[in-house]
Amino acid sequence: MRLWSREIWRIVWLAILGISLGWLLGYPWLGLAGGLLFCLVYHLRQLRALYQWLTLHPHDEPPAAKGMWGELFDRLYRYQKSQRITQNRLRATLARIQESSEAMRDSVVMLDRHGDLEWWNSAATDMLGLQTAHDRGQHITNLLRDPRFISYFNAREYGEPLTLTSPIDERRILQYQITLYGDDERLVMARDITRLHRLEQMRRDFVANVSHELRTPLTVLSGYLETYGDLKELLPPRLGKGIGQMEEQTKRMQNLVNDLLLLSRLEIDRGGEDHQPLAVGPMLESIRRDALALSHQQHSVQIILDCEARLVGSEQELRSAISNLAFNAVRYTPAGSQITLRWAAMPNGSACIEVDDDGEGIDPVHIPRLTERFYRVDKGRSTATGGTGLGLAIVKHVLLRHDALLQVESLPGEGALFRCVFPPARVVNDA
Ligand code: ADP
């Protein structure tokens, strides 16, 4: 402010000086005009110096000046200098980030808010085939054209990663993960999981092969044991008892092998070939009969049909999943319990099959882990009732293959409700 008032005073003095000189010469107004013109010329010269400095030599020292202009030049110079330091620091940080991304073995691709390619590391060139000069500014879906990637990209729900083969090498398996950041920009990461995938494949094949190989010896064993069982009366009592137990355990092993084989098939096959619209009522009716047979008519099993739509899916797989739920309801509830199988429409066009019982229920701490293989709330009880520990894992896999999800509601002492929710696309209304 001090400089500013000094500048005003300077103009006032020059005006007074101009008037005084003009008055002495007999032309006061001309003198005033002369004084002001002098001011104007001075300021115009400084302005030109500023303009030339900023446009022609912005990195040089500022032009020499006094008073307000000198201060203005100094401040601008200092501001420019600090801006340059910040810029350099940012550039160095960016270079370091790019360098570290470059060193990563995973692909990193930065997209702008429209989904156009901005930057990527050399792993992305190697895995996804992105070409530096040619592809910059292109939309990502022009380069990664797999429809599954496009719908994953557009869905904007990036909670789960997406696994696909590499667009340039069919033998490589990549796992994509997208992250939203900044102003709706996206970061696409792709990881090569070929080795992991192969190991997983080997594990599945191994379990499937072992289960398959165990089938024949077990059939032979149980065949002979059945024959010996028929002759139990002819054997000493201790041997007879042993044969009874062997029969029981062989049956358990057979159940286990069958469940393992079914799980392997559900994991290995892509499925979908035998999907067709099914009438749910008759399927629930036949499951009800099987459940009653298992319970020796000691439970009461009822069916409620609150939906007339048909369900698109594989009859064999769905029957196996719902049977597992119904048989669990029989096995984990005391005689006399009430079991309900229900097919119901839901508000948003989806529909669900529920299996509800009024048994002892499950403590909520166990619920998140129920679908894990071999997870049992009470191991002794599960084994005693002939459980393999794989029932709910099978249910989960079948539902996954039908785009459905499993909801479990239960409290100790208040029964258990298992709800399979099918999306609208799986529900066909004939009317
Ligand atoms: P399992 O072969 O042991 O029955 P599952 O995967 O079918 O294996 O079930 C996992 C566990 O969930 C069971 O061990 C049992 O403790 C519990 N469970 C399943 N259904 C019910 C039910 N209707 N009521 C109470 N507990 C249940």
TrEMBL record:
Residues 209-426 form the Histidine kinase domain. It is found in: Cell membrane. The keyword Ribonucleoprotein does not apply. Residues 93-131 form the PAS domain. Keywords: ATP-binding, Cell membrane, Kinase, Membrane, Nucleotide-binding, Phosphate transport, Phosphoprotein, Transferase, Transmembrane, Transmembrane helix, Transport, Two-component regulatory system. SMART domains: HATPase_c (SM00387), HisKA (SM00388). Member of the two-component regulatory system PhoR/PhoB involved in the phosphate regulon genes expression. PhoR may function as a membrane-associated protein kinase that phosphorylates PhoB in response to environmental signals. This is Phosphate regulon sensor protein PhoR. It comes from Vreelandella lutescens.
